Amino acid sequence: MTTPVTIIGAGLGGLVLARVLHVHGIPATVYEAEPSPTARAQGGMLDIHDRTGQPALRAAGLFEEFSGLVLEGRQALRVLDRDGTVLFDQPDDGTGGRPEVQRGELRRMLLDSLPSGTVRWGHKAAGVRALGGGRHEVTFADGTTVVTSLLVGADGAWSRVRPVLSTATPRYTGMSFVETYLLDADSRHPAAAKAVGGGSLFALAPGKGIQAHRESGGTLHAYVALARPRDWFAALDLTDARAVTARVAAEFEGWAPELTALITDTDTAPVLRPLHTLPAEHRWDRVPGATLLGDAAHLSPPNGEGANLAMYDGAELGHALAAHPDDVEAALTAYEQTLFPRSAEAATEGAHLHGLLFGDDTPRGLVDMFAAA
After folding, report:
1. Of 149, 138, 147, nearest in space to 327 by CA
2. Whole-structure pTM value
3. Which of 363, 351, 366, 368 is nearest to 206 (CA)?
4. Each residue of 10-41: b (16+ CB within 10 Å) or e?
5. Least confident piece of the model among 11-25, 111-125, 153-167, 300-314
6. Whole-angstrom Cα distance, residue 206 to residue 361?
7. How would residue 39 be classed by pLDDT, with cut points 50, 70 and 90?
8. Residue 1: pLDDT above 70?
9. Distance of alpha carbon 70 from alpha carbon 185, whole angstroms
10. Which of 44, 146, 267, 370 gets the highest tally of CB atoms within 10 A of its CB?
């Protein structure tokens, strides 16, 4: 196959696609809005699943290198009641199928696996228009353009590529996360560190919760969930970290102090993450020369599957293009025929998990699920 592939977005899914194409000798260029690989922090821990993320990394020829990034012990998980009582505690015995890595290290590994110049930094897609015959023109924020006959939108929730395929737009789920970080926690925040344990923590109530991961270097990364309208969060002054954490912590009045410390004792400015979703059955008619992967195709609330599915999408699309080197449309058709049901199934499972986390029966339903696993 000699048709160059234009990928918009250097997230995990777009990079896995570029890597799998490289393995098969297919040229690709990735355009990324960020000005450099280190322009911003890349999020926290990812559990890489044995049915999606791990096969994608094997397809990319990077599984052994990935294994060297795994943080031992981080598959441990515990569920605490709001008063700090431990309801479920599962150690990491090394047999789980979801090893944990830092997102930033995984992305760096993928970037390092690509030929120099594959990623064009500082290219923020502003719009896409169809030129006919399967060709598309991408316009970037600086006014430059690129024309391609094979365009892949790997550009996330607010994809600029999606409108050439679908009229769907993300809708607010009614819940947002507030992210916090406690650094050097074992010495500086020992009570919170003890509550989180060696891996992941869930402390939940209907419509709210405190979730946390133990990352490398003794860092605790917390996601504080609240089911509130957008106006409630818009009223927060994010430039006043103390006021924000105090207001959010007030929603957890009466909870154990070692849990609310994950909000009030943050060592970094809190970050607001509104949660959005696309319809569970999101799909589109075949549009010549273009397709989507990852959140651009199947955005859903965080459920542990997003990054894994994005990487799996990238690997599957790369395989399809390699299997149909002389027929791009056959490749895209084959890819989308499996993408749509896979995405719908994951969205349905994710909605069920969201209900276990924040529904009326939480945390009991979640504990029952973990105990039965």
Report:
1. 149
2. 0.96
3. 363
4. bbbbbbbbbbbbbbeebebbbbbbbeebeeee
5. 300-314
6. 7
7. confident
8. no
9. 20
10. 44
Give the position of tokens 């015995």: 93
Residue with tokens 């922090």: 41
Backbone angles phi, psi at 79, to 5 degrees: -115, 125
Which strands make up the sheet holding 290-292, listed edge to edge? Answer: 119-120, 28-31, 5-8, 151-153, 290-292
Predicted confidence (pLDDT) at residue 315 exceeds the cutoff of 90: yes
Helix, coil or strand: residue 302: coil
Q: C-alpha angle 353/303/96, rounded to 5°? A: 90
CA–CA distances in Å: residue 111 to residues 23, 102, 115, 310, 330: 14, 14, 9, 16, 29
Q: Which two tokens stand for residue 196?
A: 């989180």
Q: Which of 181, 174, 188 is nearest to 245 (CA)?
A: 181
Show the tokens assigned to 21: 């194409």
Determine contact, residues 138/152, Cβ cutoff 8 Å: no
Q: Where are the beta strands (DSSP E) in the chain?
A: 5-8, 28-31, 45-47, 77-80, 86-90, 100-102, 119-120, 125-132, 135-140, 145-148, 151-153, 171-182, 200-205, 208-214, 220-226, 271-277, 290-292
Round to whole Å and give the CA distance between 287 and 277: 23
Q: 3-state DSSP: the chain helix, strand, coil percent, rounded to 5?
A: 35, 25, 40
